[in-house]
Specification:
InterPro entries: KR_dom, NAD(P)-bd_dom_sf, SDR_fam. This is Ketoreductase domain-containing protein. It comes from Plantactinospora mayteni. The N and C termini lie far apart (37 Å). A seven-stranded parallel β-sheet has the order 3-2-1-4-5-6-7, with helices on both faces. The protein has seven helices and seven strands; from the N terminus they run βαβαβαβαβαβααβ. It has 231 residues and is an alpha/beta fold. The longest helix is centred in the middle third of the chain and has 29 residues. It has a single domain, classed as NAD(P)-binding Rossmann-like Domain (Rossmann fold).
């Protein structure tokens, strides 16, 4: 298989890093993250490229993807693994937390998919995998804002998948159950689940979708569930 070019947003830790780790063995991988030191460390560990990007800033998203194309050519696939955790009762969340969660999980997702689809439309092919959450299908108490922002991404991806009209451009999503990653730790929240999937287990499903060829089965809009025993 000839090396392809993949972008992994949120590739500095957790699920995104495991996705990048698998892909980097045989392909060109560019990880994106919003903390320079984390991008540098992950880039060195994985032996791939990495760029700093705040997904809530449309101009940064545009410029980073343009730079990927300049360095490596067309983008074969994009894994959107980054998200901001926003757990707790809505009435107890600070307005700044509410705003930032919407900026990252809603605006960031829209900006990233907008720019990726522009390029994939131009080149005529490409795979997009959005990491949603099983909580968008099964409500859980204590995460109303997080669930709402991730539900935006699910709705957007499902509509985009229907709109492509070509198997050469696939827009897919994966709905994992709880995973113990740095998502909660970065905002000072505890991970409370005792039954959960490991990022490396879920990563294999993301990579499987990312590696689908332009002529593989029509799976745009496919929803892959990776749940634990409670769901």
């Amino acid at each position: 298989m000839d090396p392809r070019t993949f972008v992994v947003d949120g590739g500095t830790s957790g699920l995104g890093m495991e996705v990048a780790r698998i892909l980097a063995a045989d392909h060109r991988v560019v990880i994106l993250g919003n903390v320079p030191d984390e991008v540098s460390r992950a880039r060195d560990e994985l032996g791939c490229d990495g760029m700093v990007c705040d997904m809530s800033r449309s101009e940064q998203v545009r410029d980073v993807l343009a730079e990927v194309v300049v360095r490596y050519g067309p983008i074969d696939g994009l894994a959107h693994c980054a998200a901001m955790w926003a757990g707790g009762k809505l009435e107890e969340l600070a307005p700044e937390t509410i705003r930032r969660a919407i900026e990252v999980n809603v605006l960031g997702t829209a900006y990233l998919l907008h720019e990726a689809l522009l390029r994939m439309r131009e080149q005529g092919y490409g795979n997009i995998v959005y990491v949603s959450a099983l909580a968008t299908d099964v409500p859980r108490p204590g995460i109303p804002l997080y669930r709402a922002t991730k539900s935006f991404g699910t709705s957007l991806v499902e509509s985009l998948a229907e709109a492509q009209g070509t198997n050469s451009i696939k827009v897919m999503e994966i709905h994992p159950g709880p995973m113990h990653t740095r998502l909660q730790e970065r905002v000072g929240a505890d991970f409370l689940d005792t039954i959960f999937a490991l990022p490396e287990q879920v990563a294999t499903e993301v990579v499987r979708l990312m590696l689908l060829g332009a002529d593989d089965l029509y799976v745009s809009g496919q929803r892959v569930l990776r749940a634990d025993g409670r769901w």
